[in-house]
Specification:
Layout lengths: L5 H8 L6 E4 L6 H7 L5 E2 L15 E4 L7 H12 L3 E5 L2 H9 L4 E3 L7 E4 L1 E2 L18 E4 L6 E3 L5 E6 L1 H7 L3 E8 L2 E6 L13 H4 L2 H7 L6 H7 L4 H25 L12
Parallel strand pairs: 1-2, 1-3, 3-4, 4-12
Antiparallel strand pairs: 5-9, 6-8, 7-10, 10-11, 11-12
Helix pairs in contact: 1-9, 7-9
């Protein structure tokens, strides 16, 4: 990112704990990813969301299952309407997104099996997808058992960021990660659990050592990173890389906009 998107890297380097608010969940733990990415954050109990003094410049993350109170749901809706950014995972589709933002997306009532699917990006021009996939990348994403497929209701204003033909063929919906604007803010949602990724080694490339993936990205690992990569395959690393890069892009974009710097265009209706 320092090489490909230096302003985004600079924005991530200026993050403070107050910029990201995380609501813990029973099944997902995005805070583990934040710690791995060395992004500061603050944790709040789900029962406290309705009383939070959220600010438009913040990113709110609600982990699966998204068990918020009715007051919490109302607070989330007002927060996004006033300019805040929301990131949710899996069962929060039914528990948070549907009641707070009806008419955009919904659960299609066909829960997944424990499965792995190949993903694709919709538009390489989208700023949120910068660096997520390029070249020979072929990441596989894990669907934990009983994940909620995303049915897009408002096809005009909901943008599908990541898609999967395999997911659509098996469970009726192609969307893996979606984004839509609401008021002055925006909502991001993805299927399954963010902090865990498992892959299937479907090709010879997937089975190669992870150092070859680093070489594809033009990254020369230091001694410590080289030791870590030595125990991993390309398939392992590119699944984690694609998901973490997507999230890093979202965080960097939010920080840049809240700091008054230039960013990508928003779309969607109020």
């Amino acid at each position: 990112m320092e090489r490909e998107a230096p302003l985004d890297a600079e924005a991530l380097g200026s993050l403070q704990a107050a910029d990201i608010v995380v609501v813990p969940g029973t099944y997902d733990h995005v805070e583990n990813v934040l710690e791995a990415l060395e992004m500061p954050f603050q944790l709040v109990n789900p029962s406290q969301v309705g009383r939070l003094a959220l600010r438009p410049e913040q990113l709110l993350i609600v982990n699966c299952p998204g068990s918020l109170t009715p007051g919490g749901i109302s607070k989330v809706r007002r927060f996004v309407r006033d300019g805040g950014s929301l990131f949710t995972t899996d069962w929060a589709l039914r528990n948070v997104i549907e009641p707070a933002f009806p008419g955009f997306v919904e659960y299609n009532e066909r829960p997944t099996a424990d499965d792995v699917v190949r993903i694709e990006i919709r538009s390489a021009e989208n700023p949120f997808l910068r660096g997520v996939m390029d070249g020979a990348d072929d990441p596989q994403w894990w669907l934990e058992g009983s994940s909620y497929p995303i049915r897009v209701l408002d096809k005009k204003n909901v943008e599908v960021l990541l898609t999967s033909k395999e997911l659509e063929g098996k469970y009726g919906e192609a969307a893996v990660a979606v984004q839509f604007a609401f008021g002055k803010g925006e909502v991001f949602h993805m299927i399954s659990h963010y902090y865990l990724q498992r892959t299937e080694l479907r090709s010879q490339r997937h089975s190669m050592g992870a150092s070859s993936f680093a070489a594809e990205k033009g990254y020369v690992p230091d001694e410590q990173d080289a030791l870590v990569l030595a125990g991993l395959s390309v398939g392992d690393v590119e699944s984690a890389y694609s998901s973490s890069r997507l999230f890093s892009n979202i965080v960097a974009d939010k920080k840049r906009r809240s700091s008054g710097l230039a960013s990508g265009p928003r779309s969607g209706k109020p």
